[in-house]
What we know:
The protein is mainly β. It has helices at residues 294-307, 314-323; strands spanning 2-7, 12-22, 25-36, 48-51, 57-61, 70-73, 79-81, 93-96, 102-105, 110-113, 119-123, 125-126, 132-133, 139-143, 146-150, 156-159, 165-169, 181-185, 191-196, 208-217, 223-236, 239-243, 250-254, 258-263, 268-273, 278-284, 336-338, 343-346, 366-372, 377-383, 387-392, 396-402, 408-418, 420-424.
Amino acid sequence: MRVLWTETREGWRLRLRTRNASASGRIEVLVVSLILSMTANSQHLFAQTSRDSEGVQRHVYEAQSRPKGSWKLSAKPSLVLDALSHDLLVVTNVAVLSDGNIVVTCENDFREFDKNGKFIRSMGRLGPGPGEFVGGLVASWRIADTVIGMGGDSRVAFYSPAGKLLRTEQRPTVPSNEAVSRVGYFANGSVVGRARQATSSLPTTVKTIANFTLWLVGAGRPTILGVFPSGEFEPQPGGPPRRKTFGPSGHAVVLREAFCTGFSSQYAVSCFDLRGKLISRFERRGVATQRVTGADKEYYFDIDARANPGPLGAARRTRIRQVTQFAEHHPFFGRMMASRNDLVWIGPAAASDATVIAAPSPEKPTTWSVFSSDGEWLSDVVLPKRFLLMEAGSDYVAGVQRDEDDAENVVIYTLNRSESFELDLH
């Protein structure tokens, strides 16, 4: 028997479906259909939900819980930008603007295309001048339709959707003089920066958890938004503590007027407002983790060997095999990403997360879970194999996908959102 929940304007419709055998074949019979009012109590269909005295929304999803909806991608991409014909050989990000134009972050510049895939312009280039990128375009963000690119010297350039250079900014500075890397930008233009705890400050005789600090850097004096766990470190004989490969790590994503963090030793995420005040927390229980296998370890060593080939890399390859310690299990989740419509997408852990490969695309389909910043589990979304997610919106996902020749083409899939789910009771 299958149970199908579908959200309607009147509430939630429940259909129970069963199949009876007959001489003419198998006939589907609709057993019952009823309408449930979508009240606060009916939220317990999906989670244990509460709001504490501080107004914090809390959701706990047990192993049998299911998301509110069932979102699916189109069978084929709605747009494909061929890597070779457009010279898109190193793509690190894809942005779909409000008018449908696509901005692709490449090795040294931005490339803008219209919604049909026709090239419009490039923005920025390799170099030290205004709007140029020293050492290449190593990271990018956006505020609405303004795209922001960073060079190897941490200087960023802001470009309008028309390709005009608006301004440049240096690396954010904070009173503690810590090195701060950008996590993302709020809608008001303030940047959220991340400062990691120095390994040299960690104890050398016991296992410990290092932290990172999130700073808010805007028009006024930089302020601390919070301190959060970043990784588990193990003592090393005669050397500084080392992080266990494939162990849990700290994540942070920035929405328009909020940010969310999670430490993947458990499936739990907390979201905060612009000032760092906790507004929600959601947790999934009963999620299984995968054991780290011998094949995972050899995969890690193989990727490191490719990055350090030949006689010159021999000493490092030997050293890596000697000192690398592996976690027993992979984390509860891998990547976190903020969508353009202010949702939090959480992807599965993968062995490639811990390697030196830049933005690896998975060999198999992956399932991402989508949550609101209030902690509501909206849907799971299955992404196709060889597709690396770079951006999601209300009705699309964008990224790169490897073809049969291993070329990474820029692709956009349509996201079909259905507020329903099925339970199989066989």
